[in-house]
Amino acid sequence: MNKIEIACLPGDGVGIEVMASAKQVLQKAADMHGGVQFSMTDFPWGSDHYIETGAMMPEDGIERLKEFDAVFLGAVGNPAVVPDHISLWGMLIKIRRELELSLNVRPARLIKGIQSPLRSPKDFDLIVVRENSEGEYSEAGGVIHNGQNEIAVQNGIFTRKATERAMRYAFELARTRGKKVTSATKSNGIVHSMPFWDRVFQETAKDYPDIETSSAHIDALSAFFVTKPESFDVIVASNLFGDILTDIGSAVMGSIGIAPSANLNVEGTYPSMFEPVHGSAPDIAGQGKANPIGQIWTAKMMLDHLGYTDLGQAILDATEEVTESGIKTADIQGTSSTEEVTQAILSTLQK
Amino acid sequence: MNKIEIACLPGDGVGIEVMASAKQVLQKAADMHGGVQFSMTDFPWGSDHYIETGAMMPEDGIERLKEFDAVFLGAVGNPAVVPDHISLWGMLIKIRRELELSLNVRPARLIKGIQSPLRSPKDFDLIVVRENSEGEYSEAGGVIHNGQNEIAVQNGIFTRKATERAMRYAFELARTRGKKVTSATKSNGIVHSMPFWDRVFQETAKDYPDIETSSAHIDALSAFFVTKPESFDVIVASNLFGDILTDIGSAVMGSIGIAPSANLNVEGTYPSMFEPVHGSAPDIAGQGKANPIGQIWTAKMMLDHLGYTDLGQAILDATEEVTESGIKTADIQGTSSTEEVTQAILSTLQK
Ligand SMILES: CC(C)[C@H](C(=O)O)[C@@H](O)C(=O)O
Ligand SMILES: CC(C)[C@H](C(=O)O)[C@@H](O)C(=O)O
């Protein structure tokens, strides 16, 4: 029997609720398979931990996570009690950086039974490969305080290594899919980092003559995610551009509550981390209303990564069967609770 | 009789076609008014000028523009013959910078007869106030060339002066409208410039206790432009964020071909410049297919700025009457040519 060690970090707010759902689904998937066991260890880190200890996670937290095969995260942040920059940089971004999770892979597609806000959406199925370690989210910079003459400087840092790594991953991924890669740029307005990005894209593309390439400026590309999402296959984007595009992708799918993501350590030096795109949603936390599908679809991405693609597929199929039957939370025009959706997925999986 | 001097810069591609339309509309508006004359001087600057002379506009171009009451621009760029960074930074961005057009004001709303790609759009009516002089579009930065260790650095520069100027304009504008200002931020990921932006927003807001304020991260805000554009009134955004939001706004209105913008010199030291949001669209240039509404609505914004708000309103009303009657270009599900739409607007104005 294969034993897979999963670190579960429910985090804050709805993270706790949707984590509970997804763990049940993972457990059921393992039971169905018979040959694998998911050993899930909970770490109650997050804003409450911060209030008790002054830190979002213990000092040896990252070291402890490194012992696992994968990290499964709910959501981080409770701005009413901990400022966002402390909670996010003390846990979510800290894990992304210190486990060297250099890519954030986020699919967007139509799911049966979930209505897109678009009038007549074509059947899109795209994946954004987001650079996850640097770029616009760099800590370099500062503010020169001088009253009315204050100046803030924010340094975006783009390395060849990280840029090319994201692009190569996108090209390899496109080979397994629609064989198209679109690069998100803004070299007409951002004149150092983005022309560099374009050049690395052109150079890297030479190694993938079988892949069709294109570039689009982030303004136009954001609009295209609304007007013609079906024209994309794999999109490679910087940290900020990937962040923006994937929220638009979620909106166009029908709810941010369903969107999954994988934060990958592509070198395999440390475990990868899996988290839904949505946040901790303090406004609906604790009410049993949260959509568990983002976390469950994220579990599927984790299973794919761990090599259990058949189980991942079974989970997504069961989920679509449930949404198609109309058992849905309020964010996707349903009336069911987190628990009802979870139970429906569990019993569909059983079949 | 008041004489208003307008510098017309058709530029490239469809810019030339839609400029011809909008000039006719301006002429007709002046005839209707009786008390004003628009003296329109053409400057054939752009990519052809670059091919002939090596520059997008003559050396004294900016000085010549300063003599006018307003600058009316079509679109800039013909990437097949002039690289984008040369054409845009040699003309569009050059004008924005050298005429000190520190704000880019871009409305988005539903227009009668133009179908939004949204399934059930509520009647939204928002204005993005985009900082137009600095921020992410700074020329500071560079690339350290060192083979596989290459690093590109892009410095975003945010001054108190420009940041506060954009925000004050947004607050003043909100006072004339829905009394709400939303600040586009990303301080949870971009840790120097965006917390600075947030702080200036909070400080500036104190002077406008009558205005309701909120902040939203650019990823979520981009999604909200799709899921609930009706919840916004005035949005204040950095150069890059404003760029992205206004393209999404155009998409949600139904076509980038209809979106207008005003590049304002708020101090009144130099003329302001008015240009549609769309580009030169080389793919459809010269075919008589371009949608003239973006340029015509831009003419309305110029008239508003020059103090002829009644004429501006007449133009927009005539345009909506025409779109409602179904006389529309292909980008908004019509079959009419640029010329047919223009003629229809002219004869509606006549009435
Ligand atoms: C062409 C480009 C430099 C420009 C910008 O980013 O400002 C355009 O997208 C716009 O919005 O006017
Ligand atoms: C919470 C925030 C820092 C984060 C990001 O911008 O990366 C989130 O928006 C995401 O997309 O995972």
Secondary structure elements and pairings:
The structure is a homodimer of 351-residue chains.
Chain A: E1 2-11, H1 14-33, E2 36-42, H2 47-53, H3 61-65, E3 70-75, H4 84-98, E4 103-109, E5 125-131, E6 141-144, E7 151-159, H5 160-175, E8 180-185, H6 193-205, E9 212-217, H7 218-227, E10 234-237, H8 239-253, E11 262-264, E12 272-274, H9 293-306, H10 309-324, H11 338-350
Parallel strand pairs in A: 1-2, 1-3, 3-12, 5-10, 8-9, 8-10
Antiparallel strand pairs in A: 4-5, 4-11, 6-7, 11-12
Helix pairs in contact in A: 1-9, 1-10, 1-11, 5-6, 7-8, 9-10, 10-11
Bound molecules: 3-isopropylmalic acid (2 copies).
One 3-isopropylmalic acid sits between chains A (88, 243, 277) and B (188-189, 219).
Provide the number of structural domains of chain A: 2
If classified by CATH, what would the architecture of the largest domain in chain A be?
Answer: 3-Layer(aba) Sandwich
Bound molecules: 3-isopropylmalic acid
The H-level CATH homologous superfamily of the largest domain in chain A, spelled out, is: Isopropylmalate Dehydrogenase
| CATH top level assignment of the largest domain in chain A | Alpha Beta
Please state roughly what percent of the residues of chain A sit in beta strands, choosing from under 5%, 5-15%, 15-25%, 25-35%, 35-45% or over 45%.
Answer: 15-25%
Q: H/E series of chain A, N to C? A: EHEHHEHEEEEHEHEHEHEEHHH
The average pLDDT value of chain A, as a whole number, equals: 97
Our count of helices of chain A gives 11
**How many strands of chain A?**
12
Q: Which segments of chain A are poorly predicted (pLDDT under 50) over 5 or more consecutive residues? A: none
User: What would you call the quaternary organization?
Assistant: homodimer
Helix content estimate of chain A? 40-55%
Largest interface: A-B, 62 and 62 residues
The assigned structural class of chain A equals: alpha/beta
CATH topology of the largest domain in chain A, by name, is Isopropylmalate Dehydrogenase
Biggest beta-sheet profile of chain A: 10 strands, mixed
- Principal-axes shape call of chain A: globular
Keywords (chains A, B): Manganese, Metal-binding, NAD, Oxidoreductase
Catalytic activity (chains A, B): (R)-malate + NAD(+) = pyruvate + CO2 + NADH
Domain Isopropylmalate dehydrogenase-like (chains A, B): 5-345
Cofactor (chains A, B): Mn(2+); Mg(2+)
